Amino acid sequence: AVWVGTYRQDTQIPVGSATQANPNWVVTNIGSVVLTATDSSPGSGLQRATYRWDNSDIDNGTYFTNGAIITIPSEGSHQLRVKAWDTAGNTSSVWSGMYQQDTVAPVITANKSSSDWVRSSLGLITISVSDTVPGSGLAVAKYAWENTDVLTVGTSVSNGGTVSIPGEGDNCLYMMSVDTAGNRSLLGSGRYKVDTQKPVVSADKTSTVWRTTAIGAITISVSDGSPGSGLKSTKYRWDNIDLTGGTAVTNGTTITVPNDGDHTLTIQADDTAGNISDLWQGKYKQDTVAPVI
User: Fold this and answer.
1) Residue 87, Cβ density class (10 Å: 0-12 exposed, 13-18 middle, ≥19 buried)
2) Which of 222, 186, 209 is nearest to 287 (CA)?
3) How many CA atoms does the CB half-sphere of 238 hold within 13 Å?
4) CA separation for the pair 193, 176 (Å, rounded)
5) For site-directed labelling of 22, which of 7, 40, 124, 126 has its Cα 20 to 30 A away?
6) Who contacts 175 (Cβ-Cβ below 8 Å, separation ≥6)?
7) Environment class of 118 (CB within 10 Å of its CB; exposed 0-12, middle 13-18, buried 19+)
8) Peptide bond into 227 cis (omega under 30)
9) What are the beta bridge partners of residue 248?
10) Pairing of the two strands 125-130 and 162-163
11) In sequence order, what DSSP letters do the residues of 216-264 get, joined into one string?
12) CA dist., res. 34 & res. 69, Å (int)
């Protein structure tokens, strides 16, 4: 009789893998990941294949067939593992790949900004910078005064870092941050308007002695320190310290004494920040009439 025997031998291990693995962070959605599981031909054929995210227990992973499509579970850094078995009992090596996705830009802000003038020092300004969790983490954060090209010319700062305004006046702070994936925050900005200096007022032609000729035009001078918030109002009044009923003037305005006699001129100004000048007073003594004998 003819004896027939079948001999089946499969010494080749199957192979499992996946597409789009990347050790680097990406700022766009990774999208579809294609799983691959193959057994060399001629071979015993695949028995099963599994995958698992962020867990080394691949034997208890999720079953899949060759060409299956999956997506990463969420933003962040994830490790995918793939393993395959064939009918003969050969087991593939565990394939693993990194998938690091961060599509969210960091956020940077600063406190104490003000669109209105203040007349006291603002002190230290605190900068806050954060990257959404899970994210790639902050790579750099910078700020610059009066310059929007922050990443090129700015000064590095960390979350909670403090800065001081460069000086009195209308200052603009610009900020930007970048995360490890390369996402850039929006260009942050804030105005810091500080004026602690009082305006200065005066008038010419004052005299503590009597004049026998008309004093003529008296020029009022008023100024606000530079850089300052700018003058808001200036008033003067003759022979009355209560400027509530005073007359409004501007720098360079000329006035005349009301008549012959001993007069006191009072002037005061305030600026946009609310600083009030010292009360200025000057004497004007005019007598143009000769005595009669």
Assistant:
1) middle
2) 209
3) 12
4) 21
5) 40
6) 108, 109, 110, 127, 129, 141, 142, 143, 150, 154, 157, 185, 187, 188, 189
7) middle
8) yes
9) 235
10) antiparallel
11) --EEEEEE--SS---EEEEEEEES-S-GGGPEE--TT-EE--SSSEEEE
12) 5
The SS3 call for residue 151 is: helix
For residue 116, give the nearest of 45, 193, 190, 63 by alpha carbon. 193
d(CA 189, CA 171): 10
Judge contact between 270 and 117, C-beta under 8 A.
Answer: no
pLDDT at 7 over 80: no
Confidence at 15, pLDDT banded by 50, 70, 90: very high
Q: Tokens for 60?
A: 């208890």
Q: What is the pLDDT of residues 166-208, one digit of tens each?
A: 999 999 999 999 999 999 999 999 999 999 999 999 999 998 8
Per-residue pLDDT tens over the stretch 75-105:
999 999 999 999 999 999 999 999 999 999 9
CA-nearest of 27, 32, 125 to 70 is 32
SS3 127: strand
Would you say residue 227 has pLDDT above 80? yes
Dist. CA 56–CA 59, nearest whole Å: 9
Task: Look at residue 226 in the predicted model and tell me its pLDDT.
Answer: 85
Q: How crowded is the C-beta side of 14, counted as CA atoms within 13 Å?
A: 26
191: left (phi over 0), alpha (psi -120 to 50) or beta: beta
| Residue that the structure tokens 């007359």 belong to | 247
Which pair of structure tokens corresponds to residue 48?
């099963």
